Amino acid sequence: MKESQVIEPAQADIKSHNRISKVWLIPFVAFAMSAWMVLDTYYNSGPDIVITFDNAKGLKAGKTRIKTRNVDVGYVDQVLLNDDKSGVIVHVKLDKQVEDLLHDNADFWVVSPKIGRGGISGLSTITSGAYIEFVAGDSHIMSTQFVGLEHEPITAKGVAGVPVVVARYQASVTDVHRDAPELPELLAAEGSIERELQIGAQQLRRVDHAGA
After folding, report:
1. What is the pLDDT of residues 79-133, one digit of tens each?
2. 119-121 and 114-116 as β-strands: parallel, antiparallel, unpaired?
3. Does position 156 have pLDDT exceeding 80, yes or no?
4. Are 112 and 138 in contact (CB under 8 A)?
5. Residues 155, 66, 103, CA angle at the centre, nearest 5°?
6. In this structure, how many other beta carbons lie within 10 angstroms of the beta carbon of residue 134?
């Protein structure tokens, strides 16, 4: 009688793998790229500033640009009414390159097409839309809160010029009511003429409530 042979079950050859699956590299790389983009945006983003105006004529959130020396340096992020609804608050995002130009006496005004006695200005905005012009100030104090000008200044900062106040005496106080509101400002293009050459422009015309 033959002895029965005992067949031992085959042993599986199990090898341990300590390496990380390549599949897990995909979310890791995506996370690393996202983190880098967030940090890059944080360190390279420019300042956020607020400009107040009487109205938002020509201003559009996400579209209206900020320019200085014909260089695009930012855009309007939000346009909101102020607390008492008497004006508007414009939130602006600027490029980092102009961060050191935000002196507290910097000027901001809206550039749009205007027609006056001196001619037509702002024609380039007919197709591109209005934009906010920015001129750096010369103060030693920096700021992120500004009051926008309602009209372009006759003489911008850094441009030679002499401001002159011209007064016209009224014969009688009754000619101009003391409680009358301030007269509308004249267009900046309306100027002074000397020997057929324009040598200046009127920036503001108003009633002297002191009666001088």
Report:
1. 999 999 999 999 999 999 999 999 999 999 999 887 766 566 677 777 788 999 9
2. antiparallel
3. no
4. no
5. 60
6. 24
